[in-house]
Amino acid sequence: MLTNLLRNAAQAEGTRRVRLSAESRGDQLHLRLEDDGSGIREADKSQVFDPFFTTKPVGQGSGLGLSMVHRIVNDHGGTIGVFDSELGGAGFAITLPLEDLLETGENEAVTPNHSATRGRQS
């Protein structure tokens, strides 16, 4: 999920700096990712999570990265939104329930010691 957000930020026109912050508040994890690129046009903000939506020229983007991020966040019971970054570009705010993140599962999970693991937990 973060890989897709970071890739999107790094590929934004004019991006020189990306800021990622995380904070736990109560039973939720709040993530913010901001870049100083060209930003997202107001008319496009409502579509950025739609599958196959891209502002890149034909052949340069599949339009699936942010759609996948949106699906993953929703699958974990979280929310994601887009905003104008304080750095001058675009930003994404993600809220995830910590309880879901600490559970183990079939794929990627975060264990109580906060290390990312892959595969089945025993």
UniProtKB/TrEMBL annotation:
Q: Which reaction does it catalyse?
A: ATP + protein L-histidine = ADP + protein N-phospho-L-histidine
- Any one GO molecular-function label of the UniProt entry: ATP binding
Could you tell me the keywords of this UniProt record?
ATP-binding, Nucleotide-binding
Q: Which residues form the Histidine kinase domain?
A: 1-100
From what superkingdom does this record's organism come? Answer: Bacteria
**The UniProt record lists the keyword Nucleotide-binding:** yes
Entry keyword Cytoplasm = no
Pfam families registered for this protein in UniProt: HATPase_c
Q: Might you give the EC number(s) for this enzyme? A: 2.7.13.3
| Stated name of the protein | histidine kinase
